[in-house]
Amino acid sequence: MPNNTFDASPFAARRTQLLQRMGQGIAIITTAPERLRNQDSHYPYRFDSHFYYLTGFTEPEAVLVLQAEPARAILFCRPRHPEREIWDGFRHGPEMAQSRFGFDAAYSIEELDQRLPELLANQSVMHYALGADMTWDRRILRWLNTVREQTRSGVRAPHRIQDIREPLSAMRRIKDETERMLMQHAADISCRAHRRAMLAARPGLSEYAIEAELLYEFRRHGAQAPAYTSIVAGGLNACTLHYVGNAAPLRDGDLLLIDAGCEFDGYAADITRTFPVNGLFSAPQRDVYACVLAAQAAALDRVRPGAGWNEPHDAAVRVLAQGMLDWGLLKGSLDGVIESGDYKQFYMHRTGHWLGLDVHDVGAYKQDNGDWCSLEAGMTLTVEPGCYIRPDDNIPTAFHGIGIRIEDDVCVTANGLDILTAAAPKSIDDIENLMREQQHAFAQ
C-alpha cells in the first residue's frame, strides 16, 4: 500500500526545472526493467535513478513523458490487476498514480505504443537516452517511423534527438534539501552499522559474520538495501580494492577494512573504516593509519566552493607519498615520486566520487575545455584516501598486508563542507576505546 507521508512536490519541481532546461520538444524517460535471477525468481527490483529522481514512482514497467509546449508530465504505468496484486503486491494504477504523484495525465503502459506516436508528432526535438537500452531504442525507432509515415498528411517527426542524460546529470549533481535529508539519514544508519561492526569484531569470527551485523543494522533502521555489495576485508584481503568474497576468518593482529553503506529511499551512503581485529593497532599499522587519516584531513581541507575537483586528491597524494618515502617503500624526492606516479603502487585510486541516487553518481568531473569542474554548494562527494601494501621482497616485512582506507560522505556548503558520516569512529583513540568496550564485554 502507498506511504501516506509521500510528498510529490520535490519531484514536480525537478520536472519543471528539466522542462526549462529542455526549452522545446518532448522527453521520454524509462524506468529499469525487472531482471530474472533464476527460472521464475527475480532480483530485488530497483528503479532507474533518473526516472525516480523525476517521479518518486518505484514500480516497474513505467515511462515518464515530458512535453515542453504546453508543459505537461505524463506517466505510463501498470494498470490495477486484482489477481496479479494477490501474487505480487499493490499497484497504483494510472488514476491513483496521477493524483498521488502530481502528473498532468497518466495512462496504462498497455497504451504506450498507441499514444507515443501521437505525442511525438510535430515535436521538433526528442530528448532521450539513446544507446542506454537497445530494446527501448528499437521501440523508439518504431514510433518515429510511425510518425514519419504520416508526412504526406503534414505531420512532422522530431528531426533531432538530444541526450536527456546531460541536463539530468547536471541537475542531479546539486542536491536539494530533500535529497540532503535523505542522504543524511542513509549516512546515520550506515554509521550505526560501522559502529556495530567494530563492537562485534574479534579474532576467530569470519568476515561474513561481520557483514551480517552490517546488514542487520541497515534493515532494522528502515534502509531498503545495501547501496552496494559490502566489502568486509580482513588482512591481505584489504589490498584488493573491490574484494567481496567476505568468507575468510578474522585473525589476531590483522586489520579489518569495511567499505559499506545502505540505501534509504533511493539515496546511498558510502563509508569505509579500517580497524584492528583485536582492538589495538600495531606500531606499523598505527603509522600507516595515521598517515591515511592525515591525508584525508588534507583532502577535506580542500573541499569548499570554488575549489577544483582535483584539489582534494592532490592534497591527499602529497601526504601519502611522503609517508611512503618515510617508511622506505619508495625512494627519491616527494615531487619526483608524484610526478612519476610511483606512489600508485600503494595508492592507485582517486580520492573521491560524486554520491547520490547512485553510489558513483552521475555528473561530469571535467569541463568541456578539459579543466576540472569546480565544487559548488549542494554537491555531495566521498573523500577516501587509502594505502595498500602487498607483500614484496622490497618492502619491510612489518608493512606486509596492511590495507587501509578511510572514507566519508561530504556535502559542500556555502561556507565549506558538512561531513555526513562524522558519527562513524575513525581516530585511533576513538576506535581503540570503542573496541575496548567490546573486548571487556566479551571477556565477561
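[next item in queue]
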Amino acid sequence: MLYSFSTYAATLYECRAYDGSNFLSNNYCSQSKGVSVRNWTVPDRMTFDQQVENVEAEKSQERARLHAEIASKNQSQAHARMASQTKANQCEWIDATIATKDSELRQPHSAQLGDYLTEERRKLMDQRFALGC
C-alpha cells in the first residue's frame, strides 16, 4: 500500500551487505554495514515499518512493470519469427508453383491453356514480389 499523506520526505537507503543480501536502513549505508544500492524517498510522518512497506510496494510495482515489458518484447519477437517463417514457407510454395507452371508451359498445349497458365504464373510472380521473396 502506498502512503502519500505527507508532503515531507524522508530517505530510506537500500544497502547491500557484504554477504550479498540487501536491507533497508534509515541511516546512510556506512562502509562497515555495506554499500548503498539505491535511495528511496518516502513520506516522513510514517513509522519505519510503514516506510519499508511503501518501498517494498514500489519495488513490487517496478518489478511487475519490468516483467510486463520483457513479456511484451518476447511476444513481439515471437510474432516476428512466426511471420518470417510463414513468409519463408509462402515464398517456397510460390517458387514451387511457378516451377510447375513453367514446366506445364513447356509442354504442348492449346493457345487458350497457354494464356491461362501465363496469367496464373503472372499472378504468382506478383504475389512473390508483394511478399519480397
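[queue empty]
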